[in-house]
């Protein structure tokens, strides 16, 4: 018989999104599903919106959080520290599950005892429209048995979205998301850390929609926060070429954001040299096109 799986939906002031996300979790074909709506909103709009739905579905437990979850990072860590379920997920309030997501992740994780977590690919929802564009391109299951393996995938852009992961409590107990290890990118340092506790798996199939929009915080690059992530990861990996690629990525995205904010991208001789020497077929041509204002996305 399947064990329980608890899906925590962490929400903050998103009444227009939470209903779609919650209903996608309610439609899962997994029989032993528990749902916790963990709300750290600063108003009662979400509470009022969901009250009738909560009464009608016994699987849902709605919890209004207080000061212990005053930030997104604290919210995640509070749930990590208080969760009692062996299998659980930390899902976002603006993303959407496909109906078999929980059952597929559970089937893999429960039949592979050594792994700490399993995540999956995702289709993008761009500005409210579901697309067939994928988070990463792969036909094979990616098994990462240590931190360096995770970082290598992350540096190449082949990463499963954070809300797609299902965790095994007994493997990751005591783990937390540390803001000092990457700022808003500390989900990467978290996943890389738990990989050392048993391994992490990416499934290539898409079992969810991952929401992105220009106003979303994750779509704006933070140079110094990413730098703190690189600093932490430098203690975890031996392959220095991975870190070099991440440093170039950091510089390029800093300049990209300047262009998006001001309409102009500054000419930086040092950046041009780095892109040419280490990323001739990737960041170098993009940077040249940006300087010519022929590429602004």
TrEMBL record:
<dbReference type="InterPro" id="IPR001173">
    <property type="entry name" value="Glyco_trans_2-like"/>
</dbReference>
<feature type="domain" description="Glycosyltransferase 2-like">
    <location>
        <begin position="6"/>
        <end position="143"/>
    </location>
</feature>
<dbReference type="Pfam" id="PF00535">
    <property type="entry name" value="Glycos_transf_2"/>
</dbReference>
<dbReference type="GO" id="GO:0016758">
    <property type="term" value="F:hexosyltransferase activity"/>
</dbReference>
<keyword id="KW-0808">Transferase</keyword>
<protein>
    <submittedName>
        <fullName>Glycosyltransferase family 2 protein</fullName>
    </submittedName>
</protein>
<dbReference type="InterPro" id="IPR029044">
    <property type="entry name" value="Nucleotide-diphossugar_trans"/>
</dbReference>
């Amino acid at each position: 018989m399947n064990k329980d799986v608890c899906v925590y939906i962490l929400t903050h002031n998103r009444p227009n999104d939470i209903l779609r996300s919650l209903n996608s979790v309610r439609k899962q074909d997994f029989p032993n599903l528990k749902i916790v709506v963990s709300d750290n909103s600063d108003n009662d709009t979400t509470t009022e919106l969901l009250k009738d739905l909560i009464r009608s579905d016994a699987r849902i437990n709605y919890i209004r959080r207080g000061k212990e979850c005053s930030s997104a990072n604290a919210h995640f860590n509070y749930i990590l520290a208080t969760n009692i379920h062996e299998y659980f997920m930390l899902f976002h309030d603006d993303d959407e599950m496909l109906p078999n997501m929980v059952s597929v992740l559970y089937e893999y994780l429960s039949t592979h005892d050594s792994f700490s977590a399993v995540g999956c690919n995702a289709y993008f929802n761009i500005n409210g429209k579901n697309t067939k564009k994928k988070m990463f391109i792969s036909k094979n299951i990616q098994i990462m048995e240590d931190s360096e393996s995770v970082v290598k995938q992350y540096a190449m852009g082949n990463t499963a979205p954070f809300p797609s992961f299902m965790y095994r409590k007994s493997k990751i107990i005591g783990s937390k998301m540390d803001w000092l290890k990457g700022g808003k990118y500390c989900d990467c340092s978290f996943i890389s850390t738990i990989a050392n506790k048993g391994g992490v798996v990416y499934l290539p199939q898409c079992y969810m929609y991952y929401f992105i929009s220009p106003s979303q915080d994750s779509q704006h690059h933070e140079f110094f926060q990413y730098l703190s992530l690189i600093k932490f990861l430098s203690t975890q990996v031996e392959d220095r070429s991975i870190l070099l690629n991440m440093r170039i990525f950091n510089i390029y995205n800093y300049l990209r954001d300047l262009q998006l904010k001001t309409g102009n991208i500054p000419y930086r001789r040092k950046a041009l040299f780095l892109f040419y020497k280490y990323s001739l077929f990737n960041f170098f041509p993009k940077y040249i096109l940006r300087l010519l204002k022929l590429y602004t996305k």
